[in-house]
Amino acid sequence: MTETSDPVTLNRISYLPVPDAAQVREGVSKLWGKAEKNIGFVPNVFRAQAVNGEQFLAWWNYFNLLLNKEGYLTNAERELVAVVVSGVNRCLYCAVSHGAALREFLGDPQKADALAVNWRHAHLTERERTLAEYAEKLTLHPAEVTAADLDPLRAVGLDDHQIMELVQVIAMFNMTNRVSSALGFVPNAEYHTQGR
């Protein structure tokens, strides 16, 4: 199947039709307005997932809790994990959007870009490398993960709360990557220049 030059296809952000503001439930439109106010645009993932508004809001509440609230891991560590998982899964939307967030949290665009493409080529601390290794194993080989895989995490200082949050962030991105990739979500242009 070849790509079409139809402008509707070229400007699409999802394989499914995306609802406009008049078609979404109140909670979704409020979230869109909050995003516009806080970051200057509405993330395409917010628009594309609004097809099922109640499910989108449930996803967002958990995602927001894991990624945007004070947690047990640092913001940079959570975004590092998000980028590693998204890179392993080759999820365009999440690798680009969370690569932008990682650039801002690290203040190091080169390191963030290397992480998004192949984390093994990034200059990482021992703790960062351990997080990346665990994220990759749980993403690619979940049936092979054992209690022994927690030992390297403990060796770099992670406690039980941090390990639980790490697992939850990895799981969240595996799910989100699959939704984004399955429906062809396109990252907003703003992400490409953010944090550079």
Automatic annotation (TrEMBL):
Species whose genome carries this gene: Deinococcus phoenicis
GO MF annotation terms: peroxiredoxin activity
Name of a matching Pfam family: CMD
InterPro entries, per the entry: AhpD-like, AhpD_core, CMD-like, Uncharacterised_peroxidase-rel
Entries under SUPFAM superfamilies matching the protein: AhpD-like
Domain Carboxymuconolactone decarboxylase-like as annotated: residue spans: 55-136
Protein name, as recorded: Carboxymuconolactone decarboxylase-like domain-containing protein
